[in-house]
UniProtKB/TrEMBL annotation:
Belongs to the type-I restriction system S methylase family. InterPro entries: Restrct_endonuc_typeI_TRD (IPR000055), Restrct_endonuc_typeI_TRD_sf (IPR044946), Type-I_RS_S_subunit (IPR052021). Residues 47-181, 228-399 form the Type I restriction modification DNA specificity domain. This is Restriction endonuclease subunit S. Pfam families: Methylase_S. It is an enzyme of class 3 (hydrolase). Its EC number is 3.1.21.-. GO terms for molecular function: endonuclease activity; hydrolase activity. The lineage of its organism: Bacteria, Pseudomonadati, Pseudomonadota, Betaproteobacteria, Neisseriales. SUPFAM superfamilies: DNA methylase specificity domain. Keywords: DNA-binding, Endonuclease, Hydrolase, Nuclease, Restriction system.
Amino acid sequence: MLHYELYKPSGVEWMGSVPSHWEVLPLRAVTTLKSDRNRPDLPVLSVYREYGVILKDSRDDNHNATSLDTSNYKVVNEGDLVVNKMKAWQGSMGVSPHRGIVSPAYITCSTDADRVQPTYLHYLLRSSPLIGVYNALSYGVRVGQWDMHYEDFKQIPIPLPPRVEQTRIVSFLDKKTAEIDTAIAMKQRLIELLQEQKSILINQAVTRGLNPDVTMRDSGVEWIGQIPANWQTIPLKYVSSVQSGVTLGKSYSQLNGIKSYPYLRVANVQNGFLDLSDIAEINLPVRHAKNYFLKAEDILVTEGGDIDKLGRGACWYGEIEECLHQNHVFAIRIIRTVLPEFVSLITGVAYARQYFTTTANKTTNLASTNKTKLGNLPLLVPPIDEQKNILSHCENLRAQFDVLLGGVAKEIAVLKEMKSTLIAESVTGKLRIS
């Protein structure tokens, strides 16, 4: 690693020593607070932790609603700094490459282009050492609602090399981060391919069985096709009962026998597993709560919401005593013929996903099912011994793919850390760019 010949103390703990010819100045020396408004004709911009400032319409994963009247939105020019002060502690800020408007809740500043190269400032302010500073300056009762005052923000000391050196640093970082981002994208694509391969193999086991030489017959269901001749196709309602959950929002404060109960929400039910890290509670009369108790081996299936939340299923094994479920989560109770784990497995495979999406009630970006449609889900029912063998086979497949996926995920984490370190060391002078 190349270093500068001479360093000097910066006087700032997080910054340490900086090259002797660099300046250390407060952020206000190169930025000026601005608040131009009344340009509703300009495109709306968003600030992303991962990307900085982008056109809001360029992505479909931003669900923050834009006001019908944007005349009060702040005008942003190319090279302006935009800060989401509620999420500054996450690094949600950037120098804008676009002209547009942003929420009036954001901090907007012009930058002194003679003293600071805009992209250098972008790299610097989003670097890991600075994010730690914003964390210390942000305050609030809840992390998700932390705030940061501009008066504190503008006093933050920043390392500032000569303008020509800033340009060299930017050119270096543009090239190196692009190379790292390409490597990360390739590994993320590998994860997608591995996930697809895992899904294909599990779907094949659930719909075709494990014997490649078995006699097949038509299932009678268009999106399933042929199945082993000795398998049955049975609507879910013929082998189970479906229990609806408790509706939230009702007040029982006037009734006697009120007790607090844990209950499961849509967020707790993932595809093939339960996330019990955050369990909500509800106060209900004891006699009322008994209608919604979960029982071991219930299969929990989500009603919907976003398309990825439609028909997710996982088995419940009584992990929490006297646990309820809300009305957006169905509890399927198997009566005969099929193993609960096998039904849970079916809810996640391709043909069941297609059934849920095809029969769902849909609005823009939202989809939901109901008890009737859930009850009509066509189950493929092999003999019990074969169900057990398929479950074991699929569990082994998942374990094998989890090892592969975990390895790739670690490689991505290493690349991201490499990128973060490279940026931090470049913009603070720990690495000399020639």
